[in-house]
Amino acid sequence: MAKRNFRRIVLKLSGEALAGEQGFGINPDVVEEFAKEIAALAKSTDLEIAIVVGGGNLWRGLAGSNQGMDRATADYMGMLATVMNSLALQDALEQAGVDTRVQTAIEMQEIAEPYIRRRAIRHLEKKRIVIFGAGLGKPYFSTDTTAALRAAEIEADAILMAKKFADGVYDSDPKTNPNAIKFDELTYNDIIKKELKVMDATSTTLCKDNNIPIIVFSMDIPGNITKAAKGEEIGTIVRGE
Prior knowledge:
The chain is of the alpha/beta class. Helices cover about 35% and strands about 20% of the residues. The strands form two sheets. Strands 4-3-5-2-1-6-10-11-9 form a nine-stranded mixed beta sheet, with helices on both faces. A two-stranded antiparallel sheet has the order 7-8. Helix 1 links the parallel strand 1 (about 10-15) and strand 2. The longest helix has 25 residues, at about 70-95.
C-alpha cells in the first residue's frame, strides 16, 4: 500500500497516558518524553499539528455520574481536567522548543485563548502546535467527539488516535482473549455495526461524514507517533468504503 501523506493532523492523546506507571495524575517525565517526540516531529517536517488530550488521568465524567453525581457537573469537571493536561503538555512542548497555543471551548482568558476556528488555522499555518482543551464546552460529548469535530473544522487530513495498552483495533479485548484478531483496515460502517471500541458512534459518524481517516496505534512504543504522522503503515486505519 502506498505511503500516506498528511499536511495537517489532529493527534488524540489519552489522558491516562500522561500518568505513566503511577496510573493517576500527571507524570512530568512521561509528558516530557511525549513532548520531545512531538516537538522533533514538528521541527523535522512541514506537518501542521493539532492535539486533543483526554482527562481520564485526573477525572472521568461518566465515572462521576455513575457514582451519583449530576452528569453535566461531572462532565464539566472532566473538561477542566483536559485543560490541566493541555497546559502541562504546552509547557513541555515549549521547553522542547516549539511554539504552542492552548485554545479552550470554555473561556478562561488568563490561561488560554478561546477556541476560534480561523485563529487556530492561522496558528497551524505558522507552524505552531495547537492544543484544544475543555472538550466542546458542552456535557455529554467525549474528547473523541472533540477530536472529530475539530479535525473537520480545521480540515485535517487524519486523526491519529494514540492508545495506551492497544496497538490497533481488535475484534475483542486482547487482554482477556489471546485469540483476538487485529484489523489492519476497517470502514466507518464496520466500527458502527460491530460496535468496536475505537471511538463513540457520534465521533465515528462525524469522521465518516467528513471523510477523515482515523489511525489507531499504540503510544506505549517510543517513535510510534512519528511513524503514524509520517504516514507509515502502523496500527489500524479506519476510512470509507
